[in-house]
Fold each of these.
Amino acid sequence: MTLNYSISGGDFASAGNASSAVKSILKQLNIDNGTIKRVVISLYEAEVNVAAHADNGTITVDIDNVSVKMVICDSGPGIPDIELAMKEGFSTASAEVREMGFGAGMGLPNIKRNCDLLNIKSIPGEGTELNIEILLNQAKPTER
Amino acid sequence: MSSGSENIKFHHALNVNDDLCTGCTHCMTVCPTQAIRITGGKARIREERCVDCGLCYKSCPVSAIFVEQDDFNDIFKFSVRVALIPSVLFGQFESRIPVAAIYQAIKNIGFTHVLEVENLCGTISEGYDRFTVKNPSVRPAISPYCPAIVRLIQVKFPSLTGNIIRVKPPTDSAAAYLRKKFAEQGGDPGAVGLFYVTPCASKIASVKSPVGETASLINGVINMDFLFNRITKALREMNSDQEWKDRDPHPSPENILWSLTRGESAGRKGRTLAVDGIRNVSEFLEQLEESEQSDLDFLELRACDESCAGGILICRNRFLAVERLNERAEAAAGESRESGTESTGIKEPYNHNDYRLGPIEPRSMVKLDDNITEAIRKMDKVEQLLRVLPGIDCGACGAPTCRALAEDIVQGHGTVSHCIFVQEWEIRSGRLSLEEADRINSSVWGEMRNRRSQKG
């Protein structure tokens, strides 16, 4: 099944709505709590990234009996150096965003930690596409 | 339920009186777990979903929902008759009536002993401390106090069942304590009857089918509104000039307030939060479930507004009840300051054998199927149905929301023709006969309410 959501740049108040809605559906699908938590964390971080950096974005979530696939597309500044962006603590977030408690440079690394497959395509000046896949019933602890 | 593999019977204290129920849907709309449907013109409670919070009882305009209780005369089957009283009972009376007079009145109506269950709260606090030390990764630790909340977590937030502190709540701890004490005295355990006076429905259900316990140590439950009437009558018959004294142990000033909002959290160390009202609790738990980690140490969650003072069997205004209990606690604190003595509360050390609660099992009611492939198929069907249904949650189909009807349909309960909007379209386009529509509507609303049937 496929679910679609949209996010607006700067709308931190609504970041988390998509992950919350996806959580409710995964609970109904009898998917285990550990997997649900990994999906919720990954998607929430991605939502915050769009709110913090882009003008707007779309989220597509595909669920089947093997995995949860999430595609997050935004039109924004793009990521010039993906390798650098994957480093914990690296952030290009504005002072304004940091003041709100976001932009600690943990977003992408946290997604990476919680998912089974992460693919980032980005064109500077145009936008970013995140492909996240989380396999069902894979015991990958979220606790560190 | 095709989705549930368990076949367990749940005891519920809330029941519908079919002679009074008009199928008005008030209860169906307020139910926080969507446990109510209208069938044959009457409200029906789905027992695997019901958490006994009592919102339906409060919302019913014709008092068709009632709370079962045991026969009061059952107490006389025992030679030792103990009334287990929650402190909130004393909030039911005006300040001018002394606590000791109320204790005496309870004995005058037939009990041989009175024990305020909050006497065991010191023991329980010790149990909480032990749990938090032994389980450092379980944060926040959630209070096991409110049975409606424990059940809510089981059915709606199953991932959080492990956070519930496994210590018996005051009533169960008090019962365990008394059973132990009477056994030590060596009498016939069968001669001792323990009767709990309850401010709400959920505590009845938890006595009749306890969660995390194999069997209840309590012999019966008496509703607080019933006992309030008996006590009031007894107080009238007592000499008002006499000064009553009781030798029974009283809870400490802080434990008198245990059942009120912040009654537990106030005494806990670290970052604590108290939430009352089942909808507020639900909203908070949704968020807690999504958070990556929590720096909250303790959560006090209560189903009723103003906690137990807002229980459905409470007679007096909950704010006045809270005021009286605060007065009593202050007076008790003042007395012990003056006399320089500690409060008289029971000093019982916590021990696992008597006061530990067994595991609290999750029993999700939200899953559409145990099998993920099948659940996805059902969910797809639900989404398809939601595109057809009007989305106004009118309740005319006998389900609380369009989504609830869609979920009922995929589980084999009901059809899309139960929706009166879809039905209208089906009749106009010749897909459904008037007779068939009548039959469906009668099945939901009963022969009497279905107007077309009445004309025919």
Amino acid sequence: MHRRLPEGPLREYLAQPFPDPKRDCREVEYLSLDLETTGLSPKQDRILSFGHVVMKGMSIELGGAAHRVVRVDQPLDENNVVIHQLTDDAIASGEPLAQVMRDFLKALAGRVLLAHHAELEFGFIDHLCRKVCGERFLTRVVDTQWIARRTLERRNQPFGGSDLRLFNLREHYNLPRYNAHNALSDALAAAELFAAQVAERETKKMPLGDFLRRM
Amino acid sequence: MEVELIEIREFLAEHPPFDHLPSEELDELPRRLSVRYLRRGTAFPGITGDGDLWLVRKGGVEIRDDEGALLDKFGEGDICAPVCGQRQPEKPITGITIEDSLFYLLPCDQLQALRERSEAFDRHFSDSVGGRIRRAITAMGEGDGTSLMSAEISQLLRRQPVIVAPDTTIRDAARLMNRERVSAVLICDGKNLQGIVTDRDLRSRCVAAGCNINSPIREIMTDRLIKIAPDTLAFEALMIMTRMNIHHIPVVGRDGVAGLISNNDLIRHQSNNSLYLVGDIGKARDVDDLEMAARRIPDLHIQLVQSAASAWHLGQAISSISDALSERLIHLARQRIGEPPVPFAWLAVGSQARREQTSRSDQDHALLLSDDYREEEHGEYFSALAEFVSDGLARCGFYYCPGKVMATNPDWRQPFAVWRDYFDGWIRKPEKRALMLASNFFDIRPIAGEESLYDRLRSEVLEQTQDNRIFIAHMAANALTHKPPLGFFRNLVVIHDGKHDNTVNLKQRGIIPIVDLARIFALSGGLRELNTVDRLRAAAEAGLVSAEGMESLEDALAFIAMLRARNQVNQLREGREVNNYLSPDALSKKERVHLKDAFSAIATMQSVFAQRYQTERFY
């Protein structure tokens, strides 16, 4: 499969081995990602910005934090401007999607993709991979929302959609409130939430496989 | 470039010592950090001091020694000491998270690089505790912009303005001015300010012009008014008065007339210092006059603190006023009940003797009488004297001493020989009550009467205490019972046994421990000084304490006393009861750090004392 791929970022990314699910989840590396998009549909909507931060074991390394705004040529829907605090000007001065995507894949190589409600991030990246390289996006995924839902289900605890929101979950773990709402601060917020979820389950053996979500 | 990780940058910018970093460094700093989450009850790895500096972003940590005694407690924004490269503590300590906690970690090599680049930042780590406090004191004096020149008019308004309607007769207006003791009246039609009439107008436009005093006041009022806003600076108001040659200006705010400011108010604001007040007290004809004069003490307190006087100055000023009051009261008493039948010395006791009073102080005094004193013959006279002075002081705002350390108490109104026996007993049998009394009566100063009586007593007592190791050790053990708090955790004060208080009693837990230590130096070295700062300096000179130790205590005292004085200014302004309690809410983050430094300076000296005198043998 790799051989069929053209030279390029996706191929380079796939050349690095994925983290082994049998390894302890506190020893592998993660890339926490948040995308700001114009909507929920990968086919119709566009990515406005990438935010990602590296987590080595349970230590979030802010040195590897990235916040990249993608250049989009069409005017933005007013609602998105309000939510993401990204203005037309910022978007117009952004970078080409291909460049941002290449750097993201470089950062993800050898790491687990971490996101809150990972369907969105995975869906958009997957769509891009298929469109540009004709190949689906392969990766290991940890989804903090999915971990939270599974935990509540196992406990037979009734819950509503709002219980799974990043903000409410963070409050449960005594994590600070972040006022800024951008891709990077949300990526950081998800990484911190994952650290808290792992700390809550602290046992001797914690294989990564127990936290992985099949996409 | 936009600042990334803005929330983390803002958090750092709010917390010492990162607030000292220049803006560019702060922009870069978040990228040098890593983030760790520890669940409640986890062993805290940050106390080894190698690898990283741990900063609490959310949650809390407790540090204990190997016997389980709480050493420190850290909350949001606190750096969990010990920090990089610092010497390991002699006894093993352990830390544990007491809540789910999030930390920012700065690698030690990065910290070192930052320290090399920023001097102000570096000081937080390298400075002695004393150096840090001293810098804080300097900053307090300069910082808050409430000095004399920048006081606002609204702060100087002393009373509601006297207002009359335009149709009031001139005679009625003048009567009202008389009754209210004001030199000007405002004329208002409802809420509208129409004009002003001053003493000078009454003279020139009415009396000299031979007007009808039953005419309405509006006929002689000045209606082309100069007005100022409540936030005008006092200094500007004075300029306007000088330029326009007027003595009164109405102060009009958004909600209408706020008051009337006179040049007297401004001049008094500038000259309301202890010298004027002492002068007025010296001229007082009766206790009523003294009471009037003493009402200016809170203003003096406010003004001194605003003009960045140190707590030491404040103590000197207020004590000089209570000296003057006591002296004048004794003078008035002698006019009333006659001259004393035998020589006496009126003694100030405690904070007044040390010249460390604030505007809310008890009265503590005693009478030392000549050995010619005979109870049955002279008792009545001195009892009457004591009562007159004590009641007078109470009317002037100095509360009766709850412990009855007053000359009205027959125990403390005794001839020389009895006082000598008292001291002898306290020194020979240093029991709990004896030590308490000794602490009180070792700080005495003559206010009136025969100074030689006092001199003799003082010399003999000092001779007896000097080098009396057992007595000094008992005094030391007693002094160490007042322990400063460990620090702050969020908005709580962490006290010694790990409990929390909502407020800190700055006097009980900060000032008294230092006063006690200084007194012990004085007694053990036979030093005659009374004021705590003087005692500390004399002790250092005599080699009883290291220069460094002396300075750290002196700075700690200056800082804590300053905080107390400022806190009391706020209480005075808000018309609340003036006391020694400070809520951590009232402190800036920086001040909290410095106050903790000051407490730790006290604790350090206390433990030196405990070792030197092996106080644990006594309690």
